[in-house]
Design brief:
A: Rossmann fold; 2 domains; five-stranded parallel beta sheet; B: alpha+beta; five-stranded antiparallel beta sheet; 5 strands; binds iron/sulfur cluster
């Protein structure tokens, strides 16, 4: 497949691994690089990238799986919506198994709730059009990659004059948690493999403040194995030269400015707000609220939803996994009690979740 | 859910395109891209929307750099 096969060439990856090992000989102390995005995590496990790296170049997984960082309280609200017989809940598939405080959407659906899996937020708008007697609540989760698609669905519903479409929004934005993690001395991060598709929207420039404030190298990196290897090599080169810059490895898809049209649509529909991240807590300015002018499409405004605190299974250590402080294998529930078929925590649900990726490919 | 797939545009009708990858065809919207995306372009499709256009020249340059900088001869 074009734009993929060339970047999966084993020979190329092997040669790059040799080069990384040679560069790493010059390191005075081990370095930790964080891969922020869940798709990176998946690809790193799938292609066994860690096994190609020398011991003094370590990769830690970050909070880049949108399903995983969505707090239990959000799920509980979605479950309240689903319990209403005049409502159809529309969602991306991987929200289905995420455990809420007491049940999951999957269990609710088995009990008769109308919950539909959609591929595109526009499919949810079509549901609203086809079911004028029902209210459609779309579960809007995801980072800057997904948020513009949900914003576009709201604008489309507005254009069609649909009063029965609304979004339960819990979108999050990336640079803020990266700043928190950079400042954490325990993690001692020396560089970031910045998310690939998030960056198609926000552009390389979004990481410039982070670099200026913390002098941490940032390389926007693609998802194929050769991309990841090149990203690591570029980070190492910066570390060895004592530099810190934003570089774009994934130039075929990401520009410095990002996607101006997607940014404009985001701006038109959402406004920044504080948001709760599973594992990281409340991070100021790290979420997106639907603007007041569009309150009619905001499930929080339209419906009377309870303030849900949400209780997580106390044995689940997703919080530490999401901060890169615990490897999934070190969670006592991993693979025994907690599996993708019956997940205890959100990190085991989505294929991008660190625990799920480790379960599937890592053993 | 964050998956984005590189696909080739087969046809376009207003904001709606049919795109293909590995023989699978999908409908997607180009609402989030500049107006000049055209049939034959490669785009990354995520959740039913094309979110970025792929630049062939940069793709080739990246591969070239990978091979050049990392060739065994360079390492001596
Ligand atoms: S293995 Fe399961 S219980 Fe343990 S941290 Fe991961 S998701 Fe939570």
């Amino acid at each position: 497949m074009k734009f993929q096969d060339e970047f999966r060439d084993r020979n190329l990856v092997g040669i790059m691994a040799d080069n990384i090992r040679r560069m790493a000989l010059q390191l005075k102390q081990p370095v930790n690089f964080m891969e922020v995005c869940g798709t990176h995590t998946m690809s790193i496990y799938l292609y066994g990238i860690r096994s190609l790296l020398p011991d003094n170049v370590r990769l830690v997984s970050g909070p880049g799986c949108p399903v995983c960082v969505t707090p239990v309280g959000y799920l509980d609200k979605a479950l309240v919506c689903a319990a209403d017989s005049d409502t159809i809940v529309a969602t991306f598939g991987d929200m289905l198994r995420v455990p809420g405080s007491e049940s999951s959407l999957m269990e609710q659906r088995a009990r008769g709730a109308d919950i539909r899996i959609v591929y595109s937020p526009l499919d949810a708008v079509a549901l609203a059009k086809d079911n004028p007697g029902k209210r459609i609540v779309f579960l809007g989760v995801g980072f800057e990659t997904t948020a513009p698609t949900v914003a576009a669905s709201i604008l489309e519903a507005a254009r069609l004059g649909l009063a029965n479409y609304c979004v339960l929004a819990a979108h999050k934005t990336m640079p803020v948690p990266m700043e928190i993690l950079t400042a954490d001395p325990e993690l001692n991060l020396r560089g970031y493999l910045c998310p690939a598709h998030v960056s198609t929207v926000i552009g390389g420039k979004a990481y410039q403040p982070l670099v200026e404030k913390y002098h941490i190298p940032c390389v926007v990196t693609g998802f194929e194995p050769a991309d990841v290897m090149q990203g690591i090599e570029m980070l190492l080169a910066q570390v060895l030269a004592g530099e810190s810059r934003v570089e774009i490895q994934y130039k075929r898809a990401v520009t410095w400015e990002g996607n101006p049209k997607a940014q404009a649509i985001l701006e038109r529909v959402f406004t920044p707000c504080d948001a709760v991240w599973r594992g990281l807590g409340v991070l100021p300015g790290s979420g997106l609220n639907i603007r007041k002018e569009l309150a009619g499409f905001d499930a929080e405004q339209v419906l009377n939803l309870p303030m849900a605190e949400g209780s997580e299974n106390p044995a689940c250590r997703c919080g530490e996994v999401l901060k890169g402080k615990l490897a999934p294998f070190d969670c006592p529930l991993f693979a025994g009690v907690c599996t993708p078929e019956s997940p205890v925590g959100a990190c085991m649900v989505s294929s991008e979740g660190t625990c799920a990726a480790a379960y599937k490919y890592g053993r | 859910m964050c998956l984005g797939v590189p696909m080739k545009i087969l046809s376009r009708n207003g904001d709606s395109i049919i795109a293909e990858v590995d023989g699978v065809q999908k409908e997607a919207s180009v609402m989030l891209l500049a107006d000049d995306v055209a049939v034959g372009d490669y785009v990354i499709v995520h959740a039913g929307f094309a979110i970025s256009r792929l630049d062939e020249a940069y793709a080739e340059e990246t591969i070239r750099l990978m091979k050049e900088v990392f060739s065994p001869e360079d390492m001596q």
